[in-house]
Design a protein that fits this description.
By secondary structure, this protein is an alpha/beta fold. It is built from 8 helices and 8 strands. The protein has helices spanning 64-74, 91-94, 110-128, 145-156, 180-185, 188-195, 224-238, 259-273, and strands at 15-24, 29-37, 50-54, 81-85, 138-143, 163-167, 203-211, 247-256. The chain has an 8-stranded mixed sheet, sandwiched between helices. Helix 1 (64-74) runs parallel beside helix 8 (259-273).
Length: 276
């Protein structure tokens, strides 16, 4: 167990386990998992809900530990375990939409990453920690490409995850880049949701910032990061998802495409996903 950092004033420090060189037979590489436990983990016999975090190497930049300590101390969220899963140098292929590489062939390992999380990381966590493994107590969170991955994994596995959070999601992911119309119509996740017959029992927390980017492919005055997010929600609404209950959209004025911006909305996501 790693030494713990000084907690926020009046807050008990969280505990952190670091699993070095965690192997993936699916992906053929190693990474270090960081597992953050609530302050009372060792003194309690309770089981805990779990949040899985893509791009876990950014946990410090997201101020994850300090945020958890502050929210735990205030009773603003229920005690939970957070499993930060860092990416590797092959991030552009591990993240994406399983079975649907983009127009450059990126995301070719997204299915393997999904299987790595579901069949290697989660069984390890459930075997070594006191978890509540049902979908009602399991969520996944990611930002940018990690957010695209988080949405896709949850969408395909509602028997495992009950909620997904996406900060500045790369919902532009497309398989045709020949022009603005093709870019718009070939967005992969939008098409998958539109074609879905089933309505997975999921909740979604989606965020975009007004300074996420400057691209506006159709010239309508709305940057693509916001339009791609809100139009994905339009597709979800057509499947019966209800704004405010099944899905929540947060637009941050001045929000940039950066961990420092996402750190500011992390408390709101945690309070939504794991209310006391």
């Amino acid at each position: 167990r790693l030494p713990i950092s000084k907690a926020a004033a009046g807050a008990a420090p969280v505990q952190v386990d670091r699993i070095r060189n965690f192997p993936s037979s699916d992906l053929g590489n190693l990474r270090a998992l960081e597992i953050t436990l609530p302050p009372d983990y060792d003194s309690s016999a309770a089981d805990y809900p779990v949040l899985y975090l893509n791009d876990g190497q950014d946990a410090n930049a997201l101020r994850l530990k300090r945020t958890l300590e502050t929210l735990f101390a205030a009773g603003a969220i229920q005690p939970l375990i957070v499993v930060a899963v860092p990416t590797t140098s092959n991030r552009i292929n591990e993240y994406g939409v399983a079975g649907h590489p983009d127009y450059k062939g990126r995301g070719a390992k997204a299915a393997e990453y999904s299987h790595f999380l579901l069949a290697e990381v989660m069984p390890y966590v459930n075997a070594h920690y006191r978890t509540r493994p049902g979908p009602a107590d399991t969520a996944i969170l990611g930002a940018s490409l990690g957010g695209l991955s988080a949405f896709d994994i949850a969408w395909n596995h509602p028997d495992v995850f009950g909620a997904a959070g996406v900060f500045s999601g790369s919902f532009w992911w497309r398989d045709d880049n020949t022009g603005p119309t093709a870019q718009q119509e070939s967005r992969i996740l939008h098409r998958i949701v539109r074609a879905s017959i089933e309505r997975p029992a999921l909740r979604f927390w989606l965020q975009a910032g007004t300074l996420d980017e400057t691209e506006d492919r159709d010239g309508n005055g709305v940057i693509d990061a916001i339009q791609d997010t809100t139009e994905l929600m339009d597709e979800l609404a057509l499947k019966g998802y209800r704004a405010g209950s099944d899905m929540l959209y947060v637009q941050v004025e001045g929000g940039t495409h950066s961990p420092s911006a996402w750190a500011k909305v992390l408390p709101d996501f945690l309070k939504w996903a794991f209310p006391p």
